[in-house]
Each structure stands twice: as structure tokens, then as C-alpha cells.
Amino acid sequence: MKEIILLKDGEIVLKGLNRRTFEDILKKNLKNVLASVGKFEITSAQSTIYVRSLSDEVDLDEACDRISRIFGIVAFSRAAVCEEKTLESVLDTAPKYLKDELEQAKTFKVEAKRSDKKFPYKSPEICRELGGKILEVYPHLTVDVHNPDIVVNVEIRDFGAYIHSNPLKGAGGIPVGTGGNAVILISGGIDSPVAAYMMAKRGIRLTAVHFASPPYTSRRAEEKVVRLLRKVSRYSGPMTMYTVPFTKIQEKIKDECPEELFTIIMRRLMMEMSEKIALDNGCAALITGESLGQVASQTIGAIACTDEAANMPVFRPLIGMDKQEIIDISYKIDTYETSIEPYEDCCTVFTPKHPRTRPVLKYVKEAQEKAGFEPLVEEALQNLKKTFINAED
Ligand code: ATP
Ligand code: MG
Fold first, then answer.
1. Does the CB atom of residue 317 touch ligand 1 within 6 A?
2. Is 185 in the pocket of ligand 1 (CB under 6 A)?
3. pLDDT tens across 153-163, in order?
4. Cβ–ligand 1 contact at 319 (below 6 Å)
């Protein structure tokens, strides 16, 4: 039996004249993510995107799994294509296609949508006819219009008649690439991969920046970040990751700045350098995984000091979330188990015993300027390591 995948756009519908652009980007994202599954034709009509496989040997389960992580889709259905656009063909196809589900269900209802008004039967007639047919083939079933175990959907559209059961939930959000580009500051922790996922969900295309301080941080720590980003890229699409050699800068902070300001000065330098990388890569914002009050460097005062180091907007999508809420998302996107692998992050190198929770910007800047980081910042930016991240590597 021929099958098709029908996708329902999400918030795209709200975008008025930009709708075409949004839909084109969504289709391109779908095409990219399905390229290694098989050959597909992707078209759109009547606020639905049609994904048709062009050969029989395609793994549609894999295609659906990938589609479930594409932002911009609220719901999708794997559907049977009736051989002909006739009532007879609908009555013949539905009981066969949904056999397993109908056998297991106790109650059902039929819902029909007829967007091709030339079809000679109206929706209530289609429902009545198909309802009768299903009861004939599966006499154990009863009709329940309010709370059925399964809804048998019939869609009579311009290109054909389709049958599917309860739609699957899409990833929501808006298509990656419609919201501009931003740099995610990524550590190996739980929070920053979740922050990356959340901003990709709002249409942002990501470039990742990771600060590494070998030998204080290990090769394995950086490799863990790559694995985390690969998981994120199943949602966000491929991205470039820059690893910044941060050792000399951290050693200088330790040698020349007041201990209680180590973390805050380090974080300011991270922002400053990330902003430079962002500008070089066409990115217009920074993203961090900070959550208010989670640690000493994430108080209002500390964030004010960090913020001042960059001119770009800084997005902190986790700012009002509890740790458990963040963990729940990290489970959902499958980054949790990787995040908790115990490798040292550069943030835990030279951590002060008593970090300032209420740093005064004036003193922080004075300490930073006195040490003078410009030459080392320049040198580090000349020596970035570039890694290409792709979900399938
Ligand atoms: P995470 O779980 O993401 O590591 P965290 O709770 O450990 O976050 P911090 O270590 O204070 O918090 O870091 C706050 C944010 O700073 C991180 O979410 C991340 O965006 C950024 N950050 C921290 N360490 C690094 C790093 N080594 N490279 C790039 N960004 C980093
Ligand atoms: Mg961290």
C-alpha cells in the first residue's frame, strides 16, 4: 500500500506575507534531514506539507522519527494513499490500512475533511459510510464521538484521498534558519545543550563556541562537547563548533587578578571573545545556559557584570527555570546521560573559594584592565579550532 507523510505547519500560519519564506525554509530543512533516508518529493498545499517517497525501499519509520525533531511542525501523520479518489477506494483502504489499531481499539470515530469540493460525497456522508464499513469488518468496535480510542481520518484533497489515525506530535517551534544566527556558549554541562535546543526551537541557526584549557581540561572533555552538540544538531541541523584555547588566559587570571573575581573575569572574557567569533560568523546574538541564582556567577549582580562585556543581545532561555525542569528537557533531547559524564570543564579550573556574589562592575573592570588580556585574547582567536558538527557522523 502506498504511503505518504502529511505535515501540519505550526506558527508559520501566523506569519502573513512571510509565510512563503518560512515554508520554503521548512521544506529545505526537511529535505536535508531526509536526504540520507531516501529520495523524497516535498510539496505544500492548503497549509499542509506532503512528503512522498520516490521509491518503495524507503524506511518511513526512520523518516517519521527525523521529522518529529524538525521545528515548525505541530503535528504529522503517516497516511495511506487510496488507489483512487473514490468512496469505494476509501471504504476499501481504511479498514485494511488501520487493521492493527482497529483490532486493538474498543471505540472509534471517523472524521472526514473534504478540501476537494468536487468529490461527490460530503464529509458527513463519508463518515457515515466509512463508519458503517468499519463496524461491519470489526464488529467488536463501537462508535464514540467524544472520547474514542482511535480516530479514523479521511482527507479528500486535490491530489488524492488519504487515510490516517491519530496524528503524531511534531517538535513545535519555528523552522531553524528563520530566526537569524547566534552563538551558543557550550560547556559539557547539563544546561547549555538545553539552551541551544530551546533557541533552535525559536528558529535560530547555531554556531557553537567552547572554551578549553588543556591540560587542566582533557581531550575527552572536548570530545564530550562534540557528542552533545551532535545530539543537539538532530534538532538544530548541522553547525560549526569553535574551540578556543583558553589556558593562558585562565593562568593569567589566576596569577594577576583577585581570587574572588576569577570566575566573573573569566566569564567576561568568554563573552567578549564569543562576541568576536559571532561577528566573524554572521551571528547577531549570544546564548548561554545560565539560570538565575544557580551558582555564584549567576546572581543578578554577576550577570550584570558579565553582560557588560558584550554589546550583542545575550539570550538566556533557562533564566527562570529550576534545575529539574532543565533536566527534564535534557532527558527529552537525550543529552542528559552524556552531560553527567565526569570531565573537568574550564569553569571548574581555579575556582575561587569565596566568589563574589555581588561584584561591583567598576572594580571588576579595573582588575581586568590592570592585567591586560588583549594580546592573549588576540592570540587565542588566531588559534581557534574548527569542527563541523553533523547529527549523522
Ligand atoms: P552548564 O550546565 O551549561 O555547564 P553551568 O550551570 O555549569 O552550565 P556555568 O559553569 O556557570 O553554569 O556556565 C554558565 C554558562 O556559561 C553555560 O551554560 C555556558 O553557556 C557557558 N559556559 C560555561 N563553561 C563554558 C565553556 N567551557 N565553554 C563555553 N561556554 C561555557
Ligand atoms: Mg558548566
1. no
2. yes
3. 999 998 899 99
4. no
Is the whole model's pTM more than 0.90, yes or no? yes
Q: Which atom of ligand 1 is nearest to the CA of 184?
A: 20
Nearest-CA residue for ligand 1 atom 14 is: 290
Q: Which of 3-12, 111-120, 141-150, 361-370 has the lowest mean pLDDT?
A: 3-12
d(CA 288, CA 290): 6
The total of other beta-carbon atoms located within 10 Å of residue 88's CB is 11
The CB-based long-range contact list for 41-50 (8 Å cut-off, 24+ gap) reads 45/157, 45/158, 45/159, 46/115, 46/157, 46/158, 47/8, 47/9, 47/13, 48/6, 48/7, 48/8, 48/9, 48/157, 49/6, 49/7, 49/9, 49/23, 49/73, 50/4, 50/5, 50/6, 50/7, 50/159
- Spatial distance between the Cα atoms of 312 and 310, rounded to a whole number of angstroms: 6
In three-state secondary structure terms, 158 is coil
Atom of ligand 1 nearest to the CA of 345: 27
Tens digit of pLDDT for each residue in 326-335? 999 999 999 9
Beta bridge partners of 44: 49
- The DSSP bridge partners found for residue 207 are 183
pLDDT grade for 298, boundaries at 50, 70 and 90: confident
Cα–Cα distance between 343 and 217 in angstroms, integer? 8
Query: Which ligand 1 atom is at minimum distance from the Cα of 287?
Result: 20
Nearest ligand 1 atom to alpha carbon 193:
3
- Predicted local distance difference test score (pLDDT) of residue 14: 60
312: Cβ below 6 Å to ligand 1? no
* Cβ–ligand 1 contact at 264 (below 6 Å): no
Set of cell numbers at residue 176: 531553524
CA of 193 to the centre of ligand 1 (A): 10
pLDDT of residue 174: 93
- Residue-wise pLDDT for 136-148, tens only, equals 999 999 999 999 9
Q: Is the CB of 93 under 6 A from ligand 1?
A: no
Q: Using one digit for the tens of pLDDT, what is the confidence trace for 355-383?
A: 887 889 999 999 999 999 999 999 999 99
How sure is the predictor about 56, in pLDDT bands with cuts at 50, 70 and 90?
confident
